Amino acid sequence: MMADLFVQFCEMLVVLGLAPLLAGYVRTLKARLVGRRGPPLMQPYRDLLRLIRKEVVLADSASWLFRAAPYIVFAATWVAAALVPTFATGLLFNYAADMIAIVALLATARFMLALAGLDVGTSFGGIGSSREMMIASLAEPAMVMVVFTLSLLAGSTQLSSIAAFMQGPGVGLRVSLAMALVALIMVAIAENARIPVDNPATHLELTMVHEAMILEYSGRHLALIELASFVKLLLYTSIIGCVFAPWGIAVAGQGLGAYLVGLAVYVVKLAVAGLLLALFETAIAKMRVFRYSDFLGSALMLGVLATLLLFVSRVA
Amino acid sequence: MITPLAFDVAHLFAGSLVLVSFMLLYQDRMTGLVNTFALHALVVSFSVAWQAYIQEAPHLYITAAIALGIKAILIPIALHRIIVRLGIHRTIEPVVGVGLTMLAGIGLIALSIMVMLPITAQAGTLAREDLSFALSVILLGLLMMVSRRNAVSQVIGFMSIENGLILAATGAKGMPLVVEISVAFSILVALIVIGIFLFRIRERFETVDIHLLHEHRGEQP
């Protein structure tokens, strides 16, 4: 019991510690790919430290909601990240919540952020919030369909059980899994405001979504929101890693060695995922706002199709 | 009795065929549409070849070869030529209501699964699965013919229906080879006839948008 608790807390700290590094790594890789030198790997940590030291500037029209939102967003995202088996399964919190809870926690964070974007009453925040909600209305059903597909296969909505099932012999060759993977990647790109949907590098552009909502934030509030978005990127990478590449994850009850191997494999997985993300973002152009519904609609369509196809093979 | 792996591979090909049918629905460029159709035929020929292997029915290899040769290579080349000669290879055909068409497609797949699984309760697992997917492909092909305005895309919808028929025929054991060969060649004849018609339509109306035909018949569009 105590050991489980210890592993759980280690996992939460690892997630928090690695999240800015992953973001910095992707930024550096992207800069190198277009022939620039780019910021050093540790730059996100420095940015966060600098923001925490700065004083908070609040708009006159800001209510308590505006001040509370960063803490709620960060807490919800961090708890969601604690539910994902990153380098070890069978974490203590895994038994308390499943993938649907993760989706709900992330939805809570997004809801608060959209409210905060509307709170100050600037037009930029309003645009950002309305676009974020438009993306959410398509991305969340797609994510839930992916969860349904996985749980139909594995017989459970808990990520630990799904990861164990995916390592076992019962998986087989399934077209539904490939569809679910593609749908999950598309949802992850949209949710993390990566390039075809939103550009994470811009601050003042008419097409931005995430940055528009947080334009009024400063100081430690901004630091928390930035950290939450780093953790969210890591969370989606970890979900994809633990479901579709579950090799090397330590199982609860194994010794210290297994945990260390799990941690090393996890870092390698993150490095590969970050490289793929940087390559993808460099190769593709941002799409128009009116095309979002096509992009996310096809993710939703893939999710529904994966579930339907699975239904046939289950009955047959 | 078939092994789980054999079933999984058959499921993989049949499921991919349904997916490619969906891709056909929302392609808006003519060349992309023809290339997707070639992919559709390629998946069908793989699926048939796998059926030949697990059913130990050598004549199905001939069907697979016909599907590969005629529908994945010959017909796409012919269609590319027709498109270039009609001068529509650069046109973008706006697909009306992508979301609605997709929803209708999902509904059709659910319908065909709901219809096929109960009535084939006696058949083997592989045949049941193939039949329900084949019905989905056929219905999606019909949906494509209904939702498109361009005559060439309607032709491609028609050809994809035929691919669904082949999937159904190979899933059910004991389809004579003669029938399959005659179906394959009737498709080729259909292509020639349709090709001639396309040029006739273009000569008369200077476009292959079939909405002009409605006016000609006295219907209000």
Describe the model.
The complex is a heterodimer of chains A (316) and B (221). Chain A is an all-alpha fold and 316 residues long. Chain A has one domain (2-315). In chain A, 71% of the residues lie in helices and 0% in strands. Chain A contains eleven helices and no strands. Chain A has helices at 2-33, 43-53, 64-82, 99-119, 123-154, 159-167, 175-191, 210-213, 219-244, 256-283, 292-315. Chain A starts with a helix and ends with a helix. The mean pLDDT of chain A is 88. With 221 residues, chain B is an all-alpha fold. Chain B has one domain. Chain B is built from eight helices and no strands. The mean pLDDT of chain B is 82. The A-B interface holds A 172-176, 179, 293-294, 297-298, 301, 304-305, 308-309, 311-313, 315-316 and B 4-5, 7-9, 11-12, 15-16, 18-19, 22, 26, 98-99, 102, 105-106, 109-110, 113, 117, 125-126, 128-129, 132-133.
Strand-helix topology:
The complex is a heterodimer of chains A (316) and B (221).
Chain A lengths: L1 H32 L9 H11 L10 H19 L16 H21 L3 H32 L4 H9 L7 H17 L18 H4 L5 H26 L11 H28 L8 H24 L1
Chain B lengths: L3 H23 L3 H26 L3 H28 L11 H22 L5 H23 L3 H21 L5 H29 L5 H6 L5
Summary tags:
heterodimer; A: 316 residues; mainly alpha; 11 helices; 71% helix; globular; B: 221 residues; 8 helices; 0% strand
- What separation lies between the terminal Cα atoms of chain B? 55 Å
When the domains of chain B are counted, the total is 1
Shape of chain B: globular
Order of helices and strands of chain B: HHHHHHHH
Which structural class fits the helix and strand makeup of chain A?
mainly alpha
Total helices of chain B: the number is 8
Q: Which range does the strand content of chain B fall in?
A: under 5%
Helix-and-strand structural type of chain B: mainly alpha
Number of domains of chain A: 1
Q: Overall mean pLDDT score of chain A?
A: 88
If you average the pLDDT of chain B, what whole number results? 82
| Topology of chain A as a string of helices (H) and strands (E) | HHHHHHHHHHH
Coarse shape of chain A: globular
